[in-house]
Amino acid sequence: MTDSNATGPNRRHFLAAAAAGSALAATAARAAPPDPRITEVQDWNVSWGDGVDATPYGLPIHHEAEVIRRNVPWLTADAVSSVNFTPIHALEGTITPQGCAFERHHAGAIDLPKADYRLMIHGLVDRPLVFSYDDLERFPRQNHVYFLECAANSGMEWAGAQLNGCQFTHGMIHNMEYTGVPLRALLAEAGIRPEGKWLLVEGADASAMSRSLPIEKALDDVLVAYKANGEALRKEHGYPVRLVVPGWEGNMWVKWLRRIEVGDAPWEHREETSKYTDTMADGRSRRWTWEMDAKSIITSPSPQARVNHGRGPMVISGLAWSGRGAIRAVHVSLDGGRNWQQARLSGPSHDKALHRFYLDIDWDGSELLLQSRAVDTTGYVQPTKDQLRAIRGVNSVYHMNGIQTWLVKPNGEVENVEIS
Amino acid sequence: MSRFPETLALILCAGTATAGDLGRPALPQEIAAWDLDIRPDGMGLPEGAGDVATGEELFSETCAACHGEFGEGVDRWPKLAGGDGTLADDDPQKTIGSYWPYLSTAWDYIHRAMPFGNARSLDADQTYAILAYLLYSNDLVDEDFVLSRDSFLTVAMPNADGFFPDDRATTELPLFSQPPCMADCKQEVTIRMHATVLDVTPDDAAD
Known about the structure:
The complex is a heterodimer. Chain A has 9 helices and 24 strands.
């Protein structure tokens, strides 16, 4: 059936319609002349699709082949201590599909079976302990949605507009529903001694990824997570167990978590001295810049999601988030920040999680300078890049949460620009 | 009646994981195998020693292909030496000598995570020696220097006072928590930079 149909009349009609130059019909479903997608019987209306045994675990349909993680080779010396980018220009809602959620490794994504997994807690504790993966599944569970944003997200834009697409300028982020055990429950099993004020959290990979975590945060909302978006963590996201550190820079979300040492002082390891410290204009550097401040980005229109429909109704869609709470409001400007409108928040609104916003406009086809500005529940208003540069200079590498500007041209092209 | 409180107690225990229920004691050998980290106060440093000359030889064999013979870096691989006094420049050179506040960090990181692709292959003496060479490359010690647990805390790192804790709560949050302008916020807007002029974005998904 399938073979004969592929070369049969229906297939020929399909090709003929395509040859007739139906870009307009595809996007606007105009009625004159009659639309062959309607007047001709289509293949999928006649013969079978795939059986339920075709795809035990599915991937997106091939028409969505552009919705993938992307790499920018010139950013790093090699691909195993590097980063790729979530295709946020093409996603909607707030939950990031795990298969295209960005990766950041320092010695590659390792393959660590559950059976070989061990988690050690030691140091200033009453009972140094080792947990197996199965042990972790026996603790009372919680589910929470949180964003993970790399501290370096948008960092290439400190010096000015560099990369043309929100996937590249803002795509070191994902947002998942995590299932796991509160870290405080594991620490309670070991019993923290009164002098225990800091935790060293360490991964099992060859980068020896380790960070110092203050005890207050560890006892607050940190999770030891083993599922994301309903299923096991992906290998590249820390399978089988990772740390979830809500609102704080992604580097601290240690993957393949294997060890927690309780101490009385921070360790000042490589990832909190050489890296993830923010150099100011005077040459001195901030350390322990843990929280990710309120931020937003218009994901469409954007350079990778140009306007193809001409003037008329246009959906402006975007994401907003804050490491210090939930998003109270998002403002959108069409004229480079001269005037602002309230956007509409749509969907679930969790603390320290992505929020989706929309502004529905009637585009007259003229040039736009699109911006979005997030306001979080602490009252913090997302600053401009210039406001940040006035305080920090341009070499702080991390924590760039300045307002992004997109130039929408009359032909529908969109570009990353900096404005006065 | 007398059995009822016992039953209740059993139910309560079953409903709440209590200390000692899950996990097992970590053995001293297991802790020793994983607890390799070093702190600025020297906590965790093992016995051992290494001199500059030994370190130079080891560095040349195991490190120089990426980091250069003198720690100056090859291609995009990290520079480990140089850059002294550049932190406030337009293009700061952040190396162990110019930027890192603590010697312990370098020892810890080299020992646990280097060489890249063959981590955990350096013993304590080798790590002391390589770090002694890197201190020499950064002009921080003489060529006859021997780094050991005893001499460790005598090395002064130039940028030890170059860091301060996150101060956004005082320098930024009050400034950025003012009610924002909503209308007629500025006179004019001009574009001063285009990403397409730089043209460094990968072209399509096949890249």
